[in-house]
Every structure is written in C-alpha cells, then in structure tokens.
Amino acid sequence: MNDEKGYWDRFFERRLSRRHLMRLGALGAAGLAAGAYLACGGEEGTPATGTPAPRAGAVDLSKLNEWVGPGGPQAGQGQTIKLGVILALTGPGSYYGQIMTKGTDLGVEHVRAAGGPNFQVIYKDHKSGDVTAGATAARELVNDGVQIILSSYGAVLGSILPVIQPAKVLALDGGGGTSQIWKRQDYFWGTRAVIPDDTFNGVAQYIRRKLPNARRIASVGWDVGPANDPVIAYLKQVLAANNMELVAEERVQIGATDYSTTLARVRGTNPDVILTGLWGLDPGYFMKQYVTSGMRAQVVGAEFTPDACQVAGAAYDQYWFAFDYFDLEKPFNPWSKLFIDAFRQKYNQDPDFYAANFYEKVFIVWELVRRVLSRNQPITGENLQNALKQNPTFKSLYGGDANNVGTITFDLEEHDVDKLQVIGKVSGCKPRVVAKMNRERLLEVLD
Amino acid sequence: MDFRGELFPQLFTNGVINGSWYGVLGLGFALILTVTGRFHLAYAVTYTLAAYVAVALSQDVGIPLGIAFFLAVVVASLSGVMTEGVVYRPLAAGGGGLLGIFIASLGLTIVAENLIRLTWGAGSASRSLVGFPLRPFTVLGVTFTSLDMAAVFTAWFLVLALAFFLSYTPWGRIVNAVRVNPEMARVVGINTERVHWLVFAIGSALAGVFAVYAAMRFAAVPDMGLQQTLIAFVVAFMALGTRPVSVALTGLALGLVESLSGLFLSAQWAPVVVFGVLFVYLALRPVQLRLALRQVQRLVTA
Which end of chain B is more exposed for a tag (fewer CB within 10 A), N or C? Predict the structure, then answer.
C-alpha cells in the first residue's frame, strides 16, 4: 500500500458528509433496535415450552432431613468440598448443560440448607461430547484436587475413565449413565437406567398389547461406533422373544438435521414401528420430517424434552417415548414434589429428568460424604467408592409413594441402577405417562 | 440393491431437492469468490442470521411469514455488504491478503455463532419456523412436500434470473468485466468497490433465501451455516466459473451423488461422499479430466 493513510482515514474523509452521517445514524439506530429486540428475545428464564410454569410459593425444606438423613458437623456442615461437574455447556447439546447446571446448583443449595457441606462446584465444558474436551476437563479437575466428579454423556463417551481411574476419583453419571459399553468400570457409576437398552423389554411388551399386528421393527440411532453393536444385538434378542424382527438399522450423525435419506431407506423396509436412539433436538428434527415422509409406522423415542418438541411442533403428537422419565404431573413422592416446586420457584421453568438426576446426584454425594466422615476417614475418591460399595442404596426422587421417598440401588457388578421407567405419549408438547416398567418387564399399563 | 423399488426414485427426488438448494448456495459463494477474491467463510454467518431473523420476525413479532421472509433476505444481503465494508476491505487495504481475510472470516463465523447461542440461549438456541402450509404429496410412490416444491421452483427461478442479469443487463456485464479483469475494469472507469458491494449483496441474498427455507424444513440452529457453506465451497470450486446454470447444475449433480449414495451407504456417510467427490475431482482434474474435456470439446466442434 503506497498511501500512508489507512482505509478508515480515507473512508471518513470521503464519506462523512452530513447525508452520509444521517444514513449511518439511521442504520445504527436500526441496528441498536434490532440488537435490543434480540436481547429481549433471549431473556434467561423463559420456559422452553412456551407455557409459563406456575411459580411455587415459599418451599418448605424442614422435612428434607427426615427424608435424606441428618445434617450437622458429622454430615460435613462447615466443610468445603470441591465437586467437579463436566457438562455440555456449549455446542449442540448445551440444553443439557444448562438444565443439569440448574439441577446441580439447586441440589448444592438444598444440601447446605439441610446442614450438609458447602460443595464448591467447579464446572467444566465437554463441548457436547468432544472426547478431547472431556478428558482435558477431567484432568484439570484431578489436578485441582477434586475427588468427586458428576459427568454426563456416559463419562463423556468414555474419555474421562483413563483420567479418573489411576487418580482414584469417583465419578457419577446421571446424563448418559453407563450405557452398555462403560459398565463395570472402576470408579465410574451410572445413576440412570441404561437407555435405550433397559426399555426394550417393556416397549416390546407394550407394542404387543397396543399394536398386536406390529412385527417389523426399524431402528434409527446415533452412530456411536462400536457402542452401537451390543445395543443392536440385545434389541434383536428382545424382539425375537416377542415374535418381532429388526428389518432396518440406520445410523445417523449426532446433531444431524436432514433425515431425508435415512427416511427413504427405512421406508423401503416397510416397518410397523421405528425405535429411535436419538437425543437432544435430534428427535425433533426426525419427527418433523417423518410426518411428511409418507410412512405410518409408530415412532418410539428414547427421550422427551420440551426443546425437541418445540422443533417438531405438532409432529410430536405422533411420538411415543420410553425412558426413566421424571413425572411432573404426578410426582413420585414428597421429595419429588419439593424438588419440582423449588425448581420452579428458583428458575421460573419446569425441571426435566436431567435436572432431577443431577439434583439427586448431589444428595448421593452428600450421603457418601456423611458415611466417610462417620468413619473419620478423609474425603477421597477411594473412600467414597468403598462407602458406595458397602451400601449401594440411596434415597431417590424416583419411586416411593405419597408418604415415602423412593430409593435407587446400584448394581455392584454392572455399576448401574434399575430405575423406574415409563412409556409416554405427547399432545401439544405435554407428555403423558401411559405405562410403567423396569428393565425386565412392563409393570403397569395406564392407557 | 433394488433400483426398481421405491428407494431409487425417492432418493433421486431427494437429490434434486437438495441439489437445487446446493446449486443456489454455490452460486452465491462462487459469485463473491470469483468477483471479489474473498474466501467468504462468513457466508455461514449470513446464512444463520437470515434464518434467525425470519424466525424472530415471524414468530416473536408476529409479522406475516412472507414479509418476514423478505426482510430476512434483506438483512442477509446487508450483513454480506457490511462484512465486506467493515471487515474485509479494511483488511485488504491494510495488506491483510487472502489468508488474513480468511482468518478474519473464520473468527467472525465463530463469534457470530456464539452470539446467537447467547442471544437465543434460554432453553436452547434452536428455533423452528412454522407457518408455511406444509403438505405432503405422493406421486408414483415418491413423497415430497409443498415446501420442497417451493424450494426447487425458487432455486431455478433465481438461477435463471441471475443468468439473465449477468448476461443481458449493463450492471451484469460490469460484474463480468470486474471478474475477468479487475485492473482493466478500473482503468476504463468502473467503480470496482461498488461492484464488490453488489456481488456481496446478491450472493448473501441467495444464501438468505435458502436459510429461511432451512429454518422451515428443519430449524434454525446456531451452527447451521457452516456445513452449507462448505457444500457451497465444493460446488463453487467444481463449477469452474460463475455461469449460473453451470454452477446450479454442479450443485444438482452433487446433491444427486450425495443422495444416491444412500443406495449403498447409511446416511451418516453423506458428508464423506460430498468431500470424497471433491477429492476425486481434485485428484483427476489436472490430467484426466482436462483430457476428457478436450475430447468432448473436439467432438462438439468437429
């Protein structure tokens, strides 16, 4: 450039007449107005369903100790304990990160109010399933002296295991759980059912009752490499036991939006039912295109979130779901009701099962801390895991009845839990439970 | 694989729909690249912004869908022009070069994507654009929707309109002149700065149109633009120029190859197929393809 003056100098010399100034002013005003509008549009706390959640009154925490155990110095009161949390804070799964963060924060608040320790939460981002980010996050937490980690995405798809196991740091996963592939891993425990595997028996039995002519089943699921194989093998086994067959197995990229090729391939196999192993917003994209694909098969998904329903709109009225759903309409027990009320009051939105799982996980950690302290042992991952193995049963938001809180029990071999699961239908983005089941069989059919 | 069943015609139809779409995106990208020399990766920002503006205007403000569509395309066009005026040109004037502009473009794309996540991030940043009368049609076993038909019709209308503009209007001929020889164009008194703004406006508007279609067909998501921009790049690179019909046909061919790969491969391999086509093209182009093209030319001129 042979001119010593810069671009902007020349720009302002040439352009800044009164007329140009007015034009720029108008453009700037329009830009500011648009910016202000956009900022308002994204106001934090807007319920994802578009329906304002009712605000609860003051939430009474006085019965919390009765349900979850005593507080006080022996329960860690006055101590500060680091709690690492690895979530999808950015990326396509950031919905999960946000809702899990809220559940965790509420749990920490309630534990402190009930006379428990002050959990110093250290959040780390795995960028929606990035294994490098997951391993890095775990390494940073371990280096920071953290002894307990709450993880998601199935130990962030296994990437944190080589970090936590040699460091003897305990990790609990209430997001993806153990799945089939990360079971029996030392220091790693799943606090939710293995989805979709644990639903297969109940769903097949429900289909036999409600769709007696359905024989041909197709599967559309995330491509998670070798982790797909045991799921499909188990699905074939369950279907065969119920006089059904798997006629198509389509794998799609995580976060895919265009399902036109997948739907064309599935349609060619003429299925009666399509089981989807899609999470996040993906079931919404799938259903939006499915309803115009010309197929009439019943779709049964592995998750319901208001976000995905917002993407699909009315198409979700044709969607059934099956997983360890947390029922907001009919809370399982009094602690569930307290959690729902407190969550609505704090965040002005409905919780979902991820929020419930992470809230519950904080209480599992507190119970472990209480047990370790009662033996005058230091809070280490090893001692915490030993405490879990000695008594694998914990108080839960799931199960129970109107007077008693539920429990979950870890399988000491598999490192997972057999949680109550449901089959649900959707109408206008409102989910409705139509059946209850465990991993072995259908327990109750409501509709 | 059974080519006589429903699968082949359905995948072929899907390929035509997606390919028409790719053609227009490639056309917008190619126009900007060949006339201004900017590797405009921030095309993704324009694309995403248009989708979100359409959703915000239609669903949050309540403006009728058609008007929201038009305004979103205008915003897309302005965003392209502003990117050129505020980011690229100062960098070019400061000796930023091709790499500097590319890096700035990449940075802008990352910043804009995250700004959208922050702005619309209460639940998630995904927004679905509803309001178009979405009706499925089944003809001879092939299913498509009213939206697919509208998109294909719009795509080819825009391609032909742009072909007419570039070939038969004074401004179109000026654009061609700047593309072929910008120095000569400057010497004969053409204001190349204005021409750059014009092509950014046109190219960005083309992206805006299909971003709004994408928000209706799928949803508006913060990272929706990058994948489409990469496809637009592949189309632009393979089209060997900016003749609108050639670029659109290249996009159509790419869409068909991508979709028909579904005869043999599962859908998760579709992006691999797109970039595989580019790889094969790059590998063959310097030698065999050029020879093959010469043979065709000889046959045509003989």
Answer: C
| Residue in this structure with the two tokens 């980690």, named with its chain if needed | A149
Smallest Cα distance from B235 to chain A, Å: 19
Q: How confident is the model at residue A36 (pLDDT cuts 50, 70, 90)?
A: very low
Q: What is the pLDDT of residue B289?
A: 59
Which residue range(s) make up the domain with A384? 64-194+331-416
Q: Which of A94, A252, A294 sits opposite B124 (nearest CB)?
A: A94
**Residue contact A252–B268, C-beta within 8 A:** yes
Tally of structural domains, chain A: 2
In Å, how far is B145's CA from the nearest CA of chain A?
7
A38 CA: distance to closest CA in chain B (Å): 6
- Give the pLDDT band of residue B294 (cuts 50, 70, 90): low
Given CB atoms, is A12 within the 8 Å cutoff of chain B?
Answer: no
Here the ipTM equals: 0.78
**What is the per-residue burial (b if ≥16 Cβ within 10 Å, else e) of A270-309?**
ebbbbbbbbbbbbbbbbbbbbbbbbbebbbbbbbbbbbbb
Question: What is chain A's Cα-based Rg?
Answer: 25
**Are A315 and A219 in a shared domain?**
yes
B65 has a pLDDT exceeding 80: yes
Rounded Cα gap, residues A335 and A326, in angstroms = 12
User: Which architecture, in CATH terms, is B7-264?
Assistant: Orthogonal Bundle (1.10)
Query: What is the rounded CA–CA span in Å between residue A377 and residue A371?
Result: 9
Selecting from A45, A281, A313 the residue whose C-beta is nearest the C-beta of B126 gives A281
Which residues does chain B have within 8 Å of residue A48's beta carbon, measured at their own beta carbons? 122-124
Helix axes B192-217, B43-55, angle to 10 degrees: 50
Hey, what's the torsion of the CAs at A25, A26, A29, A35, to 10 degrees? -120
B259-281: average pLDDT: 83
CA distances from B35 to A213, B95, B103, B193, B200 (A): 61, 18, 19, 11, 9
From the list A197, A179, A200, the residue with the least C-alpha distance to A188 is A179
State residue B290's pLDDT score. 61
Give yes or no for residue A39 having a pLDDT over 60: no
Establish if A206 belongs to a structural domain.
yes
